[in-house]
Amino acid sequence: MRARTPFLIAIAVAVSLAGTAYAGGQTSGTKSTSTKSTSTKSSSTKTPHCYDVQVEKPKEVKDTHKVAGTALGAVAGGLLGNQVGGGSGKKVATVAGAAGGAYAGRKIQQNQQNKTGTVTERRCDP
Fold first, then answer.
1. Hey, what's the signal peptide range on this chain (predicted)?
2. pLDDT range class, residue 64, cuts 50, 70, 90
3. Whole-angstrom Cα distance, residue 97 to residue 27?
4. Cα pseudo-dihedral 8, 13, 15, 16, rounded to 10
5. 85 DSSP assignment
6. C-alpha count within 13 angstroms, C-beta hemisphere, residue 23
7. Is residue 21 over pLDDT 50?
8. Could you tell me whether strands 32-36 and 49-58 are parallel, antiparallel, or unpaired per DSSP bridges?
9. More confident residue, 1 or 84
10. Whether the predicted model's global pTM rises above the 0.85 cut
11. Of 34, 49, 81, 86, which has the most beta carbons under 10 Å away?
12. How far, in Å, CA of 27 to CA of 56, rounded?
């Protein structure tokens, strides 16, 4: 049992650092950048002026209640808490670890769901 302790701790640290690092490059709000293309106008027909615009839109959220992050965090926290203490202290540490892990897992998933994606849209002025 003690041989698995460093392995479990290493996994928990790696998962939390990966989630934090992945969530670090997030931006909020909607931004747009336009790249205009030139169009030639002839004297007889009026051609629309078209250009590409890069728009940041929120990504689709599949787990609105963040159940997966909460559950995985609780399991990881409970496993880590179970490695601490002895007797009734071990039970308290397991419960505290599960609660802390559930909170951390929920926050990590929330950060992942708040990301935006960049989409290029073609717009034309009449």
1. 1-23
2. confident
3. 31
4. 140
5. -
6. 17
7. no
8. antiparallel
9. 84
10. no
11. 81
12. 9
